[in-house]
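$ ./design --mode recover --in tokens.txt
reading tokens...
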């Protein structure tokens, strides 16, 4: 029997201990470890690629929704959400048929949720779960829906970049090159997928290979072929192509 590789994520040590205690009676569960905050959770999920995460929603600085939004590349793990009473979160989970447990976690409901996970894995229904999860994330209000931080690999390990500090994104094959304050980082994600996760009021697609932080635009200058030069506050010069010009002008309220 294949073990279900599992991470426990909660900012409360007592809650993590309680979940680990419940998991001890499940012989097919392999506990990979536990995380006490969202940043550590993203790092461990990226590094260990668990089959299942038990994810607390209410965590300081980076809540459970933000953890899921920060994940890039590959298929996300299955998730059992754990939450204190939160009317919005409960409605969202129910609307998208996703498993959740209320604190304090009741053992019999915990077993039911694990049995559903086993069924998803046994009958290879992970794609259907992924669709439900994406629908949930897209249903969130703007202040929760769009990604606020991106996890990237650096020479020293993993680093979390606040999205609002990024100058622009550049397509690079199956990856995206992040430009931030003169430094560059590589993100394992395609441009179209990233664009869908960015707030369109803050980030603008100006070319098939470029998305720019609107707050970093210093000036735009027309070119003879109908394109525009987009000059950033950093001095970088990008191209607004004719394909994206009309939409960009509307968002920027640029006079035609």
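writing sequence...
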């Amino acid at each position: 029997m294949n073990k279900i590789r599992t991470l426990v994520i909660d900012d409360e040590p007592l809650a993590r201990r309680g979940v680990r205690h419940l998991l001890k009676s499940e012989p097919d569960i392999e506990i990979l470890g536990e995380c006490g905050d969202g940043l550590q959770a993203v790092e461990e999920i990226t590094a260990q690629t668990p089959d299942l995460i038990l994810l607390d929603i209410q965590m300081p600085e980076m809540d459970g929704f933000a953890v899921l939004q920060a994940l890039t590349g590959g298929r996300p793990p299955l998730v059992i959400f754990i939450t204190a009473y939160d009317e919005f979160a409960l409605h969202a989970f129910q609307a998208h048929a996703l498993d959740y447990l209320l604190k304090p976690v009741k053992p019999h409901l915990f077993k039911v949720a694990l049995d559903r996970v086993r069924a998803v894995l046994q009958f290879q229904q992970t794609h259907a779960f992924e669709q439900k999860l994406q629908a949930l994330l897209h249903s969130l209000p703007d202040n929760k829906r769009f990604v606020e931080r991106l996890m990237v690999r650096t020479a020293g390990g993993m680093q979390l970049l606040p999205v609002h500090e990024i100058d622009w994104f550049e397509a690079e094959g199956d990856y995206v090159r992040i430009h931030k304050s003169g430094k560059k980082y590589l993100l394992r994600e395609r441009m179209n997928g990233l664009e869908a996760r960015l707030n369109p009021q803050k980030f603008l697609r100006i070319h098939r290979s470029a998305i720019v932080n609107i707050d970093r635009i210093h000036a735009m200058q027309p070119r003879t072929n109908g394109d525009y030069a987009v000059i950033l506050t950093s001095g970088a010069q990008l191209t607004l192509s004719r394909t994206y010009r009309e939409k960009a002008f509307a968002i920027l309220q640029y006079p035609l």
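exit 0
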